[in-house]
Amino acid sequence: MAHRDADRVLDYPMSAPAALDAPTEWAELRRNRPVARVRLPSGDEAALLTRYEDVKQVLADPRFGRHLDAPDAARVTANESGGVFGGALGGPMSAETHRQWRRMVGTWFTAKRMTALRPGIEAMAERLIDEMVASGAPADLKAALGFPLPVWVICDILGVPESDREKFSHWSDTLLSLTRYTQAEIDVAQAEFRAYMSEHIAATRDDPGDDLIGELISAAGAGHVMSDEVLLSTAQGLLVAGHETTANMIGKMVGMLLADRRRWEALLADRSLVRTAVEEALRTDADAGFGIPRHITEDTEVGDTVIPRGTTVVCSLAAANRDGSAFADADEMDLGRTPNAHLAFGAGAHACLGQSLARTELRAVLDVLLRRLPGLELAVPVRELERVDGLVVGGLRALPVRW
C-alpha cells in the first residue's frame, strides 16, 4: 500500500476543506512523500516539494530557473498564462545581465523609497475606506479595498494615469489565468498591455520622470543596457507579481485576523504587533497559489531523493511555511512570532523584488483599518468564505465584513 501511495499521482493544485484551511495532504506529503508526483492543470506531470529545507534548497540553486519553455519541461496549463511562468525576462538573458537588471530594479525598491510611498498608500486606503463606509455595511472588503489599492500603487510606480487603473486590473486578472480565460483572451490582454506600455515607454524616453520606468531609462544612460523589451517585461512582471498577489493577500490577511477575533483584539491593544502579524499572515497563508516551478537541468539530490534531469518541480511555498521542522507550532498563527524566516517571497537569486512594497502595503492597510474600523468583523461565518479558482494566485472570492 505504501509503495502504491508513493507512486500515486495527485492532481495539483489541491483543494482544501475550507477557504482559509491548508490542504489535508500537506502534512502527509511532508512526512512521507516530500517529492510527490502531481498532475498539473495542463495534464503534464511534475514533482511537488513541500518541505521547508527542500524548497529553500531548490529556490536558492542558481542552476535551476523558470525555463519552462524547454522541450522536456512540463506545461503548467494548456493555455500558457501570458508568460507568467515563461523563460528569462525579456527573452534570453545571461546570468550577469539578470544580476545587473535585479540590481537596477532592486535599487528602486529601497526601504527609503518604500517609506516615502507609505503616506500615499495610507491616503489611498483612507479614500477607499471612506467610499466603503459611505456605501454601508455589509461590504466586500476585497472588492472595496484589497483589489483597487495595489493597482493604484502600481500605476503610480509605473507613472501611468490613475484613470487607466481599470485596464490594468483587467490585464492583471487575465495574465494570471490558469483556467479562467481562453488562450485568445490571454493573447488579447497581452497585446493590449504591450501596446499600452510601449507607447508609455516611448513617451517616457522623451521625458523621463521619477517613476520606475523613467529611472530605469535614466540609469541606462549611465552605461547600462535597458531595452524596450526588458522595460516591457519589467512592467508586466510588476503588474502580475504585484497586483493580484497583494490584492488577494489583503483579503486573506484580514480574513485570518477576523476568523478568530481575539487576533484583531490583540492588534487593537498593541499596534506594535502589526509588523510581525503581517509576516505571520504571509507565513500561514494556506492558499498562496500555484507555487514556484523550476526546471531541473541535471540529476539533483533533494532530501533523500534524486530528482532526474528534465523534471519540472513545483516548490509549494505555503506547504513549506507550515513545516514543523522549521517553525514551532507551525499550524498556529502567532502574531508576535520572531524570527520568522518564511518563504512567502521565495529565496535565492529569484526572490521577489517587490517584497518591500508588498510589506509596506500590507502594514499600511492594516494600520489604517485598525484605526478607522476597530469594530470590523466578518459578516458571514468563516466556513462560508470561498476561494477563487482558476488563477495562478490564490485568494478569497470575497471578504464580507461589517463594522
TrEMBL record:
It comes from the Bacteria. It holds the Pfam family p450. Signal peptide: none annotated. Keywords: Heme, Iron, Metal-binding, Monooxygenase, Oxidoreductase. InterPro entries: Cyt_P450, Cyt_P450_B, Cyt_P450_CS, Cyt_P450_sf. Belongs to the cytochrome P450 family. This is Cytochrome P450.
